[in-house]
Amino acid sequence: MLEEIFAPRSVAVVGASPDPTRLGHTVLKNIITNGYRGAIYPIHPRAEEVLGHTAFPSVSVVPGPIDLAVIVIPPEHVLAVVEECGKKGVRGLVVITAGFKEVGGAGKELERQLLALVQAHGMRMVGPNCLGIIDTVSSLNASFAALMPEPGEIAFMSQSGAMCTAILDWSKTQGIGFSRFVSLGNKADVDEVALLQAWNHDEHSKVILAYLEGISDGPGFVAAAREVTRNTPVVAIKSGTTAAGTRAASSHTGSLAGSEAAYEAAFAQSGILRAHTMSELFDLAMLFAYQPLIRGNRLAIVTNAGGPGIITTDAVERNGMVMAQLSPATHERLQRELPPTANIYNPIDIIGDARSDRYRIGIDAALNDPHVDGVIVLLTPQAQTDLAETVEVIAELAAAHDKPVVTSFMGGYSLGPALERLTAARIPNYTFPERAVQSLAAMYSYAQRRQRPEPRYRSFEVDRERVRKLFAEVRASGRVELGEVEAREVMEAYGMRLPKSQLARSPEEAAQIAAQIGFPVVMKISSPDILHKSDIGGVRVGVGDPTAARDSYELIEYRARKYSPDARIWGVLVQEMVRKGRELLVGVSRDPQFGPLVAVGMGGIYVEVLKDIAFRLAPISEQEVREQLRSIRTFPLLRGVRGEPPADIAAIEETVLRVSQLVTDFPEIVEMDINPLVAHNEGEGVIVLDARIILQ
Amino acid sequence: MLEEIFAPRSVAVVGASPDPTRLGHTVLKNIITNGYRGAIYPIHPRAEEVLGHTAFPSVSVVPGPIDLAVIVIPPEHVLAVVEECGKKGVRGLVVITAGFKEVGGAGKELERQLLALVQAHGMRMVGPNCLGIIDTVSSLNASFAALMPEPGEIAFMSQSGAMCTAILDWSKTQGIGFSRFVSLGNKADVDEVALLQAWNHDEHSKVILAYLEGISDGPGFVAAAREVTRNTPVVAIKSGTTAAGTRAASSHTGSLAGSEAAYEAAFAQSGILRAHTMSELFDLAMLFAYQPLIRGNRLAIVTNAGGPGIITTDAVERNGMVMAQLSPATHERLQRELPPTANIYNPIDIIGDARSDRYRIGIDAALNDPHVDGVIVLLTPQAQTDLAETVEVIAELAAAHDKPVVTSFMGGYSLGPALERLTAARIPNYTFPERAVQSLAAMYSYAQRRQRPEPRYRSFEVDRERVRKLFAEVRASGRVELGEVEAREVMEAYGMRLPKSQLARSPEEAAQIAAQIGFPVVMKISSPDILHKSDIGGVRVGVGDPTAARDSYELIEYRARKYSPDARIWGVLVQEMVRKGRELLVGVSRDPQFGPLVAVGMGGIYVEVLKDIAFRLAPISEQEVREQLRSIRTFPLLRGVRGEPPADIAAIEETVLRVSQLVTDFPEIVEMDINPLVAHNEGEGVIVLDARIILQ
Predict the structure, then answer these.
(1) Model ipTM?
(2) What is the domain-level CATH number for residue A571?
(3) Which of A165, A171, A246, A323 to probe the B interface (max B CBs under 10 A)?
(4) Given an 8 Å threshold on Cβ–Cβ distance, is B161 in contact with A211?
(5) Which CA distances in Å does A216 have to A108, A254, A255, A257, A271?
(6) Each residue of A541-555: pLDDT tens digit?
(7) Is the Cβ pair B314, A610 closer than 8 Å?
(8) Angle at which helices B464-476 and B649-665 pack, to 10 degrees?
(9) For the domain that residue B646 is a member of, what is the CATH number?
(10) Chain A residues whose beta carbon lies within 8 Å of the beta carbon of residue B130
(11) What pLDDT shows up at residue B485?
């Protein structure tokens, strides 16, 4: 859990200057004034003491052991100090100093050397080029941030130091507290993967937030996140996803931003909730930090005003949650205990003159109803409203039940102290109710995700060796794109069905092969020199009997010789004529950060015009391919519309999984398209009509 | 401009009790304490004076004239008082009293009588069942709201009194001010339409906000909004749009909530911006109230931190705006005046240690660049940031240019006074930058809309009389659904092309008709008693020559007699065989509030599975039908994909306009479907294959 960084028994600050305008001074001061209980060693070439602590000219002369060294000195001196730290037995480093990879050129090389040194001594390092780290559990503020956050159960990491500052500042006004707070900087050593691993099973963190610009190790990130999200929700905001954002990101941190599709797939597969705005990020953080996990999607609303009740009901439906159908017993109780003008159906409207006693009745009834999974309490300040008592009632009832309770107290001016008390009572309050609903909906999707079984990966028996040899041959011939026959061979080696096909070298042989395959057949000229076979009349479809096969052979050969006298002619390919079916596209692209990305969609205009396609990172599990296929908008076409029988969905899924296995086995495949994959009706299988493979 | 309500010279409060716990007391107090300058008359049966003002037992004994009467007495006394007011010459009423339409039954009848009385005396009335009205221009707070809003340039109306309270309370903490603030209540007389008309050209209101639950007069609302939005932006939040929300709305106000499609169409056609959340509503309100209208979609960002710059750049692309390409002169200036580590490309990154001088350079350069239409200033509080000076610089530069400037100061704790000063300087600030971008994007869409020419409506020469007669006949026969031949006649009368078609009564006649139409033809049994013609073999397609036509006639007749011996047989319909083309659906439904709604979409699975269809309210203008057709996702299929020629888009649009004319001429059409409409290639027209019409 990176104890050396977050819970060191002693900290040295290298560059702890007595000059209060220097960053090193600020860092030392932050450590001292925020209650850190371990030994503190200022390191300064000349000072005898800084801020009341004895200073030392170097780490090597410090009498006791040093767990963590925070480094705030010019970049040219960093390597020497780190070397010294290594020798001294320092275990953790926070390098605040800038001037490394982010400045390019020599800085890049300096960072490489720094990392090598850190690794050689078995140390762990946050930074360089960061704001530092804060841990409220060990009361350690090893940063130059102007503020110490409140203690809390949110662990936060950010690639941007400025976002750290902004969020610290903002969190102070919202009463939001943190357990750990990390500015990742250039993340030469400790990166998002290391932190996810460190914070897995962290009893002090109920939710992990991440502000990401780029991810260094895509597959590692997915694996770590998959593991962590089983225990702890992870909410991430990923910027730099649009084309313009990516340009801004590159100029900012030099990190290569992954493609949007890859991030979407990575988040979906690893169970990370994605926030699109900073507000969403903290809306969710509060909910996870303060309230129990929701167990279903049925919400009850208790309100003292009709209008907000309607807005909230709208939001419930729009976000895929449902308005709970209250049980008869609940209706009876509400009818008995509330005034006759109240609305006892969900939303429970306790009317504008409601005081805390009516809120108690409504909320208690909703929380006790087995058909309710979560409660949203709405309040608009009215003349009769007794805010303080109402907050106490909500806090008391929420604490007594294992269902999430959130509020939307709408207003501001008259709410001040009530809102503070809500935060203290760990009730997330949302200024407008839509955000309450959105947050509960996201929590529900996390809850569902957590119930999922372990991913199961199918492994098909394939002829891997054959593909390996084939790729070697292709490369030996100086090509990167496979020919039709080669791509066909790869497909076959990985167990995919293709149209039966055999090369005929004479009219008679063509007739025999066609009879074996079964009439009608398709016949095509086979020549490495003729690319556009149809243009010269080199393709005949629907060849129906042996005579037609013989005639077609002669005709095709005659035309080929006539129009391409110099072409090498291998013969005529006789192919099974594939029945019509629903056409799909299965494609592969390779993301620089996440590796192979497998796409599936309905073919033709659906993918071209409607961009209706879904991506997953390989390897894809059985559950993931199910979700993938069902997430395309045209999925109903596969299930069958207008009385059509369903397509062979199982066979489509299997094809995607076989492709996933192929690209996982052969990372050298950078692009691949099966287009079209023809799917026949349920039980009748699928067939690959055409495939394209490009190697690195 | 409803002067009698918003700027009365004298006000009577009927029910102005000396008892401070009574609503009438609160209302009077609000009028007195908030600076109203006209005459004030408390009306109370027994009191001699209330709150220092001489009281009168009734309005009739008040010595001077009364412009406005605010009524806060039990419902059973309201009619008598209103009658008295009418006689006294009172011109405006605000009826706060509840117990009318919203309680149903007798309340409904009471409201009807109240309205009749108001109208009989030529008065205007807000309410009943409302919170009251506030006008900061005339300093009149004729409501029982606990707070008086700040003066400002936002006019606000709400159907929900609770939303009024909540928003007033919230606005106080945000420094948001209002010009007029109206709780509509049951809107028996003054409704959203009356207020839109009253606030058109209102020099005190730069933006109109509306919280709507239902709209009483759909077409009136669209017409009024169309007019107003040419001068003043209108932003509305419409709740009760989802199925569950609608149920909640009905139980709340008894108003019938319109369908979501109708509202979307009404807002699109009238130029109203729709907010989906209360936050969006006020994000936009601030922007319109404080800043000049944006003239283009090119945004520049000035930031002291890279991360927020990336987030904002992302948001710019995601919201359909573009990152401005700064001109060479701007780049030169930024390079010359900013430190070398700054990023002089958009986003302009003036780096973490930026003080107000660098903000001045960045913002001034951006505002002076002709390629920039608006500027977003981002600030994260850093050690060197000089907040107060930076705010002054922003305020000064924004005031000096006619381009919108907005800020996102990210943080909270250290920002307090700076944020207040931003509001005072009329710079909209957004806690997170995504909201700044969304608001500017919405402003841009309004600016575009405003540039549009007046809507032009085409009027086609049609045979209206023929349709009128036909509908009368259909109704005379006790039916509401038109038969195939009748629907065909309607289409023809409105100038739509149908397949040529003629009834043959003998094999020989069939051959002759077919020859006239041109082979091949389709032949169908014609009988009022045979519904499923294909099932009995009563349809033959691709009939290619005269012999085949004769044979088909006999075969069809033979089968009809065999399978339906009792059917009346009129003969065999010989029809033009329509060439294949792109199939569309043009449909009509009738919304209870907005009237006829015309839908268009690609036919078949596109509309069935993908729900890819766009609605507009009839009558539809030429510009609107263009937008309507282009708003469907499958529009590229009409423009042609894969080298296909485009479809006859002009002819499709004309068909929609003819349908719009038809349903406007005949409000009794409640449902209609042209399915399919076959569109041929550009210049080749469209043809109606099948049409269904249902009358009221």
Answers:
(1) 0.76
(2) 3.30.1490.20
(3) A165
(4) no
(5) 15, 11, 8, 9, 19
(6) 999 999 999 999 999
(7) no
(8) 60
(9) 3.30.470.20
(10) none
(11) 80
